[in-house]
Design goal:
single chain, alpha+beta, elongated, nine-stranded antiparallel β-sheet
Length: 336
């Protein structure tokens, strides 16, 4: 055994070193972390995200003290988009550097890449890098840290595909299409108007701790007998009501604006601030799910979606009937 020890000992050392380098690839790499460190371990430190792409206007996402994020300091940002973005920052990994033969070609494409900058609350820059095109197999994106010479193919472990669509700075895709988020405790007045059915319109006003109910055109004899619990239950439906999507680039906006609205909801909160949503019937089109009546005749209007105007009628949106059906009630539905 003693005679074998001089032979076995070097073999054991070589085996241990092999295992070490297999499970610790960083130690065998000559590439510095400053060249390939794309991930952010603690996204809670990120306060501002700037995304700039030659095809779009520069977009800034800022975290507010409330926890909400804002787009360009004007609009609420979509929480789902923000969450996915922050998750992406923690998972990005450098897979391999660009091959020498492809360096010039990839470097030229990086001139049109998306520039991403991250800052903390004090305004200190945390990260800055370029996000380029995908590779031929579409398994990742080319990335380059600011000031670094090397370009890498980056990927997200466990995700098949490229991730650059998550960083497209199209502002309308990032805005949160909030319509109403109120309840009985902070609603002082609510008007639901049906221009084509005046007798279906009504108004609810807060009177101390209670609410009054009245038909908008003229009072109905039974208005005063509408139960308070029914009014409160109805007003609870105004919590977390959002549009499906912004449609500000829709080509027929002007013609729809000139049409008679199906409904107009105006809500005044306890601070005197007003919010309005204008609903327009949407014509049946090729993607309408239910395009015929029970008797087989073709419907004129889509029963699943409305077009709408919100934010002082500046934004044109798509509104789902499934979301707003509980607030699009008519006067007679409240009467005993």
């Amino acid at each position: 055994m003693k005679k074998l020890l001089p032979i076995l000992l070097p073999l054991l050392i070589l085996s241990a070193l092999a295992v070490y380098f297999v499970y610790n690839p960083k130690s065998s790499s000559t590439i510095e972390d400053t060249e390939k460190g794309f991930a952010v371990r603690d996204t809670a430190a990120i306060d501002v995200i700037e995304i700039q792409n030659p095809k779009y206007a520069k977009m800034k996402l800022r975290r507010a003290e409330s926890g909400w994020w804002y787009v360009n300091d004007k609009w609420l940002a979509r929480p789902d988009k923000i969450d996915l973005l922050l998750q992406t920052f923690t998972k990005i990994r450098a897979k391999k550097p660009v091959a020498k033969v492809a360096e010039d070609n990839i470097a030229s494409t990086m001139k049109k890449a998306t520039r991403i900058k991250l800052y903390d609350k004090e305004g200190m820059q945390l990260k800055s890098y370029l996000l380029g095109t995908t590779n031929s197999s579409r398994s990742g994106n080319y990335m380059q840290l600011e000031g670094a010479a090397g370009i890498f193919l980056a990927y997200i472990p466990g995700f098949e595909g490229y991730f650059s669509p998550r960083f497209i700075p199209k502002i309308s895709d990032w805005r949160f299409p909030r319509v109403f988020n109120h309840g009985p405790h902070n609603i002082s007045e609510l008007t639901v108007e049906y221009p084509e059915e005046p007798k279906a319109s009504f108004i609810i006003k807060k009177k101390g701790e209670d609410f009054s109910f009245s038909r908008l055109e003229e009072a109905h004899p039974k208005d005063a007998s509408v139960p308070q619990n029914l009014l409160r239950a109805y007003l609870k439906n105004f919590r977390n009501l959002n549009a499906e999507a912004f449609e500000n680039e829709y080509e027929k906006i002007d013609s729809i604006r000139n049409a008679t609205p199906h409904a107009i909801i105006t809500l005044t909160n306890d601070k005197g601030d007003k919010r309005e949503a204008v609903f327009y019937k949407r014509k049946v089109y090729k993607r309408t799910k239910v395009s015929t009546e029970d008797d087989g005749s073709v419907r004129e209007y889509d029963i699943d979606r409305f077009f709408g105007l919100i934010n002082e009628r500046r934004d044109f949106v798509l509104l789902q009937n499934f979301v707003f059906s509980d607030v699009l009630r008519k006067h007679e539905e409240f009467l005993p």
